[in-house]
């Protein structure tokens, strides 16, 4: 009876119970309502404060770059760009292709 966002939160909580040093997320926002996406990203963003490294695979480029220290851009299975997230936000290719600017 849980919503998609609630299920995702339970999955994150279950993963955190083992006190991991690394949490990997593959499209945690997929299929969720915008409100649930905000909540999920709030939780993920706080993990490094607890000493947990986060590996995030996410198609929501804007959201991912806002919370990342480093980022890799893949196209057709190949890494085409990499670097500091601030640098990538300013990259013309990223702006045009992924941020709609």
Instruction: Point out poorly predicted stretches.
Output: none
Strand arrangement across the biggest beta sheet: 1-2
Distance between the termini: 40 Å
Describe the main β-sheet briefly.
2 strands, parallel
Q: What would you call the shape?
A: globular
Pairing-aware structural class of the strands and helices? Answer: alpha+beta
Instruction: Count the E strands.
Output: 4
The portion of residues forming beta strands comes to 15-25%
Could you please describe the fold and organization of this structure?
With 101 residues, this protein is α+β, with helices and mostly antiparallel strands. 46% of the residues lie in helices and 23% in strands. The protein is built from five helices and four strands. It has helices at 4-16, 34-46, 61-67, 85-90, 92-98; strands at 22-26, 53-57, 70-75, 78-84. A two-stranded parallel sheet has the order 1-2. It has a two-stranded antiparallel sheet with strand order 3-4. Strand 3 (70-75) and strand 4 form a beta hairpin. It is globular and about 40 Å long. The mean pLDDT is 90.
């Amino acid at each position: 009876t849980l919503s998609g966002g609630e299920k995702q939160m339970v999955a994150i909580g279950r993963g955190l119970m083992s006190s991991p040093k690394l949490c990997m997320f593959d499209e945690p926002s997929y299929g969720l309502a915008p409100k649930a996406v905000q909540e999920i990203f709030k939780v993920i963003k706080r993990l490094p404060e607890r000493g947990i490294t986060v590996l995030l695979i996410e198609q929501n480029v804007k959201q991912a770059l806002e919370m990342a220290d480093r980022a890799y851009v893949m196209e057709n299975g190949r890494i085409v760009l990499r670097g500091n997230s601030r640098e990538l936000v300013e990259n013309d290719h990223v702006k045009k292709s992924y941020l709609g600017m």
